[in-house]
Amino acid sequence: MKNSPIPIYQPELARTLNRWALIFSIITLLIIASLRRFHIDTEIDFSWLAIFHSMLNALTAVGLIMAYLFIRKKNISAHRNMMTINMILSALFLVSYVIYHLTTAEVKYCHTGGIRTIYFVLLITHVILAAVILPIVLFTYIRAFTGQIELHKKMARWAFPLWLYVAVTGPILYLMLRNCEA
User: Fold this and answer.
1) Residue ranges of the alpha helices (H) in the chain?
2) Cα torsion for 30, 32, 36, 37, to the nearest 10°?
3) Average pLDDT per consecutive 10 residues, the chain (182 residues; last block may be shorter)
4) CA 72 to chain centre
5) Would the pTM of this model clear 0.85, i.e. be above it?
6) CA atoms within 13 A on the CB side of 135
7) Are 140 and 150 in contact (CB under 8 A)?
């Protein structure tokens, strides 16, 4: 079935999901903002998570492009499925990111010159947009899920390029850090 029916607007469900999305966004941003203050000593080496969450970001970038192409072809069902996959990938990324930063020493950028400036410009824009995009993505997804399609479309015009930028710059930053040590 190429296109499943568009959900009927569900205002009560939308209000409930919006509240949970707001609470989740605030708690998540507070946790991420405080990661540098906490460290959990463990015998398990979680340094491998850096490449894992980089791959999740890359898969999300590919998934976002695929979802965009599906919706351009009016394949709503495939678009919906791909966006659900992207949400799952992003949730896995978030868990991976928090575990990694709680257990693994910070890696400082070790290169000098112009590439250092490029790295920090990418890093700063990536971090700011990653913080901003979380609630935007959640609310955009909720709009589609609860049948608010016109509002979903308006929000997606902003959410898509920002989320794609974050998903693409994550692996780029990882690659730029690869030869630096903690």
Assistant:
1) 11-33, 49-72, 76-103, 114-145, 149-177
2) 30
3) 70 93 94 86 91 96 98 95 97 94 90 94 94 95 94 96 97 92 68
4) 22
5) yes
6) 15
7) no
